[in-house]
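seq as requested:
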Amino acid sequence: MRKRRQIELFSISFLDLLSGALGAVIILYVAIPKNQPVPTIEDPQKVVLQNELSSTQKIVDELKRQLTDATTKIASLEKTVIPEVQPSSSTDLDAGFKFKGKNIIFIIDTSYSMTDEDRMGQVKAGLKMLLMSLSNQFKIEIVHFPLGQRAPFRSMWGNIKEFTSINRSDAFDFIYALRPSGGTPTRDTLMFVLENYDNVSDIVLLSDGAPTYHNSNKKDDIFEILRIVRENNPGKIQINTIGVGSNFMRDKLSEQYKFLSLLASENNGFFVGF
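struct tokens:
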């Protein structure tokens, strides 16, 4: 009797196991279409790692592509011959600007509005590059306006000097020390230059705004200034103008655009806005 019970217990347990396994097989057989692979259950962590690996591989491929493009561009640039600038030995280099002669006065607007868009920094950098391109056959002078509230303008030397290496160094120091302040007394400065400098061939005016009166925000009459300049420029000094600030090219109906463009065209000069 004891042995029979043991066999029956074993038989029932074994049948349960077989039926459970068989049931699982049947469910899989019915649920999955024939001739289709049985899907495997992916480990979620493994899936995440695989996705991260795929994304990383895409980034690596993109970096490789960019590196290849950059290498190609560098190789192309290395083939380009860049001319060497030699300011002290050049014979007639005027940096793309068509000057009338070689006696040039640079008039720089240092009004407070030159702090916008770092215009003062742009003028300093641009003027230094322009001066570096000039040969020692040129003579220059620099006048800036205003000198704060003390005066409507200030000159560097008071006369035009040969552009020797020592004078070039003095000019760079003068430019470096410029600080924006005050209004835009363009009329006073232009008249000072026209009346006090002999043998000037060119004037280059760099400004960002319409003229005002000294120590005032009141706008000056640009057409009156143009008339006075015409009357006081019998020797026809070439007056060139450079407009500083993004609004010059954007708003060609502004007072500053009309003034600088007309001042240049009426005095046979070039006008550039940047």
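Residues 7-12, 17-32, 78-95 have pLDDT under 50 and may be disordered.
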